[in-house]
Amino acid sequence: MKRSGIACLMLLAILLTSCTRPGKPCPAMDKIQVADTEKFAADPSLPFRFPLETYEKDDIESHAWFCECALVDRKIINTKLTRRMYHAAEDYHRPAGTPVYAIADGVVSFSGKAGGYGWLVIVDHPHYNIYSLYGHLSPSRWKIDPVPVKKGQLLAYLGDPWENGGSKKNPLETHLHLGIRAGQRADYPKKGQWRYMAGWIKLCPSSIGWLQPSLLINNQAVPSGGFKSPSPGLFDIWGTETVISLIYIACGFIMLVLAFRKRIPWLSFAPGIFVAVVWAVLYWRDIARTYYLLAAAVAMLLAGIMTFKKIKEKR
Ligand SMILES: [Zn+2]
Questions:
Q1: d(C-alpha 64, C-alpha 90), whole Å
Q2: How many whole angstroms separate alpha carbon 252 and alpha carbon 263?
Q3: Whole-number Å distance between alpha carbons of 212 and 197
């Protein structure tokens, strides 16, 4: 195989990280009716309340709803690519400064800046085995500490278009992004499709633990023992990364054989260095958590050193 062919295969593998995985289509979710949210907020015996003062009809008519599949702009290595992704939450549009309340008793487990969310707050509700995620908040108004909170306790205010994940140059329309998921925040990885703060993902949200927020709040029902966390196999979470790493290892191995046969010492290090650079770019650009790729890079560097020594011995 020609070296250019190997390089092309490696580049193809980079692009694979942004491909939609074929699979079962995400089930269409009913847009549910507006419920008596004031009653939920006032009754302490009910487990959940709506995170805003009111739940308006507009909330289910015009904004990104749960499991909606839409084209989303994603930056892949500084290139803006539009990809089809699922919304793992519900969006409610309100003016900046609107207070946001905890949907249930719990503990704030995250309060900080998180990419496109601007300021993000996550509350763990171990009692029900769920966590709730509130995105596009206002860091300039108030930042809550990691403290226990009661249902209805103030968490934050909605952010202005330049601080809610948007900027002066690219303002983001003010809205609350509410995600609710079975399990606890710490159960999930920091990066990849299963990441705990996922907003738009390639996998169907309902198949990886995300719950429909308004449906959960309207039903007020908690299964005994709490909601069941999804139980993924290792390949479910890291499948794409594993496949990509295997492609790199195969390509790297071919390059090492080529380096040895053609007696090209510098080529011994090329696969390891190339994969290490790819790993670093994917990791730091927050595209994929690829520890498999890091392991592949280390293995290939070691194999490269051995190949280099062999070539020198043969000369
Ligand atoms: Zn959203």
A1: 6
A2: 16
A3: 15
Q: Are residues 195 and 294 in the same domain?
A: no
Please say which residue of 160, 187, 219 terminates a domain.
219
Separation of 89 CA from ligand 1 center, angstroms? 6
- Asked whether residue 295 is domain-assigned, the answer is yes
244 and 275 in a common domain: yes
Tell me how far the alpha carbon of residue 87 lies from the centroid of ligand 1, in angstroms: 6
Q: What is the mean pLDDT of each run of 10 residues along the chain (315 residues)?
A: 62 49 64 78 92 83 79 64 82 94 96 93 97 97 95 96 91 94 92 89 90 92 93 77 83 91 92 89 69 86 93 83
Between helices 270-284 and 234-262, what is the axis angle to 10°?
150
Task: Identify whether 7 is part of a domain.
Answer: yes
**pTM for the model:** 0.77
Choose the final residue of a domain: 184, 219, 254. 219
Cα(120) to ligand 1 centroid in Å equals 12
54/104 same-domain check: yes
User: 177 CA distance to ligand 1 centroid (A)?
Assistant: 4
Q: Which helix (H) or strand (E) holds 312?
A: helix 291-314
Helices 270-284, 3-16: axis angle to 10 degrees equals 20
Instruction: Give the Cα separation of 264 and 1 in Å (integer).
Output: 15
Question: How many Å lie between the centroid of ligand 1 and the Cα of residue 110?
Answer: 18
Q: Which domain holds residue 63?
A: 31-219
Residues 53 and 121 reside in one and the same domain: yes
